[in-house]
Write a structure and sequence with these properties.
heterotrimer, A alpha+beta (111), B mainly alpha (200), C alpha+beta (208), A: 111 residues, alpha+beta, Alpha-Beta Plaits, 4 strands, B: 200 residues, mainly alpha, Rna Polymerase Sigma Factor, Chain: A, Arc Repressor Mutant, subunit A, 2 domains, 9 helices, binds zinc ion
Chain lengths: 111, 200, 208
Amino acid sequence: MNQSLLPGDTTPAGLAAALRDVILDVDGVAEVFPARPLWQNIAGAARSAVTGEPLPVVQVEFDGEAVDVLTRIGVSTALPAPAVARSVAAAIREHLGSRTATVRVQLVQVR
Amino acid sequence: MTGSPPAPDHFDLVPDALLAGRAADGDTVAFEALARRHGPLMRASARRLTGSLADADDVVQESLVQAWKQLDTLRDGDAVKSWLLRITASRSIDQVRRRKNHSDLSDLDQRLAAGSGLAGGGAAGAGNPEAAALSGSRMEALKAAVAALPEEQRRCWVLKQFNDQSYEEIAQTLNISVASVRGRLARARVALAREMEGWR
Amino acid sequence: MSASGDNFECGHSLEELSIYLDTGEFSDPGHLTECPECQSGLAALRRLAALGDELVSADIAAAGSGTDDWMQSILDNLRLELRPGRDIPVRPDTPGDILTETEGSISALIRSAADSLPGTAAGKCRLDGDVSTPGSPITVRVDVAVVFGHPLEERADALRRGIAATLARHTELNIAAIDVTVADVLEPGFPGPAAGPARPSESSEEKP
Ligand SMILES: [Zn+2]
């Protein structure tokens, strides 16, 4: 069922962690921010800073055969930002292989 | 100095109103400059109001979170300092109400003094040991007198002295009448003035 | 202080004097200049106010500076959230993918263009128009503060060119106009608010 995915990728958490590295490898990407704003739960963020427990970064949701990926990234101004967004989407798709996917890339910082 | 740009590292030059406008647009750097500028006073006020170092830091963090979320409701950017202090005051009072067993202020001053040499006499009278000693012990006497005030009187006095609130604002913060504020503030001052007359 | 109870022999009270100090209101203002009791009461309250100011200064000093670790750790927590604003679409290579830039990230980009000019700092910045529909005409409005002595018109022109180039490179927005307003003139070396705009706000608009 998951032939196109690496073993670590079979859980949302495993796939999310792998995708984070894939995204960070794209030229022009400076940072990967947690996919969900933590504002409402700043106490959680503070706790995470203390315990070193990583916060969920890339959001991955399986829907049967399909997978939904959401990432919030910061990019440098070294490359045009829209081109970086397209490269990130392409890198995510390449990692997912032939799987049906929806990819959402949100640029939240350009600097 | 001439021609140096008021870029992020030169924010000292930039007025509150401009920073508040930028921050309301979502500029975190401008918001951080405001937080750094007014944070120490927020912390000082929260310490006197909560009587706890740890609670005060929680209050400052919560207050900045709230300020960031509500910045777009701030009409007058010049008023950002009193606005931040108003948020700090309300959160401090909430914190004290949440926590019944808060430590008292004399305890706070002991721990402040233990943690920092600045807590004693402050910078007042520096350079003149005799004056510094006098000023220092006078400060200690004032701290003790403030700590000895009934809770409600102390809150009124701190909100006036540290947060520079009007009678109406204090009444709102404490959810009491303006007449009560007038009376409590006056009684606090009478008690403090009596206590301090010996230190002239 | 001579009063033992709440009231002086003259019939007035420290409470009245305390209110007078804060509000300037007193039932019989002429009395204050001739009553020694009220005068010594006022003097005591003024000494207390001065001492109170000293305590505030000492407490602020004890609270540390805004660049200390305690403030840094609070700000680190705050920074996790960025005020996003509207989503600005970016054309995807694969239909169905949703690529966006936040309005907040683009505003920040515009402000940094203004900040990078010597003697110039950006204030409010907005994108007027339907940024979420590709091709909609957008007007950029940005307020700037300029340090006194820098030529305002020249600054505004350079800034418009800089913003136009930056937006063309980093967004797919259809920029119809860039409106730069000099909203503040800053005194070099004097912290705090400048004494209002040193001259009427200068606004100018042109096609990029
Ligand atoms: Zn009198």
